[in-house]
Amino acid sequence: MMQEPIFDFKSMPKIELHAHLTGSITRECLHEIWKKKKGAGETDLEDPLVVMPPGNHNYDLTTFFPLFSSYIYHLINDAESLDYSTRSVIKDFARDGVVYVELRTTPRAMPKAGLDKAGYVSAVLRAIDAAQQEEPTLHARLILSIDRRNSREEAHEVVALAKRFRDQGVVAIDLCGDPTKGDVSLFTPAIEEAKAAGLKVTIHFAEAEASASDAELSTIMSWTPDRLGHVIHVPEAVKQQIAARTGIGLELCLSCNVHAKMIVGSFEAHHFGEWWRVQGPIVVPCTDDVGVFGSPLSNEWALIQQHFKIGRDEILGLARKGIEAIFGGDDEKVRLRGIMW
Ligand SMILES: [Zn+2]
Q1: What keywords would UniProt list here (predicted)?
Q2: N or C: which end of the chain has fewer CB within 10 A?
Q3: How do residues 13-63 score in pLDDT, each as one tens digit?
């Protein structure tokens, strides 16, 4: 009798749909950038390996967002570090066996680099393009994020940038950022504008109790988003609404939610267990911020197999189902159907 092959999740072709560009930069890559800047006398920042000690993945909502606003954004603040870190993120995903990735980023001006928000998006797209040339089995697309702290005007600016760069790989709009901040209803016109332009929409949904009020969830559901991220603090009635939306993508981020203590309990308690068998929605395991939480996508799948006792065929079926949730278009779906196990 043949023995069932041991599953190698690294070589299993995988789809990543919820990965923040800056949060996906490894500490080693940040360290390389820092070392170069330090040597050139260009930074007073502390070594990223001191600020984010390797092995420490326990960032919660109170420490996670300040890490970016007070540290990482100050380190990645010029064209060279933006280019280097973006390429490095793409390469890391490719080496982990990811064949299709949608990165997301909030357009930010980099005055030091002479880049306005459009210049930033353009620079990220160029770096993605260059990295893809070196990693031909990985195809990447970009999602532009509206930050919850944005004004209505800033949100429209993000949508305008997405429209402007859509023929260069921007596929969708996201809403993200500190869940304790902002009133999402402010963004209804911007989301409507994006949808009218044919852009896809994914939303960080019920990520924390602070962003799970009935008013917020019903506003977001009224936008009929194509995908939802996290989906943690969801009341039963809203779960039923989600379950009834055939084809809606659910980007579930296990390690992030466990390490950041966004859920009660450990992996077995993660709501992945509740959703993965539900017909209708398409569950896609994602990393969110692999640079912070340290668990590559191959490891997320290993955790899933380990904690939810899912068999080989079901794992492969689930991975393939993710193809239907991508924003990359029909040709890309055909390619993925051809290469995924
Ligand atoms: Zn996220």
Answers
A1: Hydrolase
A2: N
A3: 999 999 999 999 999 999 999 999 999 999 999 999 999 999 899 898 899
